[in-house]
From TrEMBL:
This is GNAT family N-acetyltransferase. The keyword Transferase applies. It comes from Hymenobacter setariae. Residues 8-176 form the N-acetyltransferase domain. It holds the Pfam family Acetyltransf_1. InterPro entries: Acyl_CoA_acyltransferase (IPR016181), GNAT_dom (IPR000182), YpeA/RimI_acetyltransf (IPR050680). The keyword Acyltransferase applies. It comes from the Bacteria. One of its GO terms (molecular function) is acyltransferase activity, transferring groups other than amino-acyl groups.
Amino acid sequence: MTIVSPAQQFLPSTPADIDEIFRLYRLAAAYQAATPRATVVWPDFERGLVEQELAEGRQWKLMVGDAIACMWAYTFDDPQIWGARNADPAIYIHRIATNPDFRGQGFVAAIVQWAKEYAKQQHKQYVRLDTIGENLGLIAHYTACGFTYLGLSALTDTVGLPAHYHDATVSLFELPVAG
């Protein structure tokens, strides 16, 4: 879809990527566990969740050469996290995981640019994301990428959400697509 540089490109993930997706999730969870300020460590995600996202074309990857440098999922509907704001036309980004071999290369900012372009194509007004708890490092990182920090929100209905959302408070972030 969008070319970042001749060696970098955004592509939809495929079922052939599923083992690498779960490897990156495990590495991200290990990184979270080793980070003293981390407010959450990702659980083992349900394979069926990722298989559904793959089937619906909602899992994406940023390729650098032949390697998946970063991957994420998106949805256009996130009512359990966003409540009444879910009525706004938005794209919601979830589970950004960067390959440790590619950390520190600004891929979250690249994903944000991809999401803004994709949202425009889909006639959405916002790019949104969340993180569990009040993770000051991620708050600073996401606001540096252009997001407005909307504050903390306690989740009340987490049935069907991944385990790390249960009994959680989330930090919410929003970026207008126009402009």
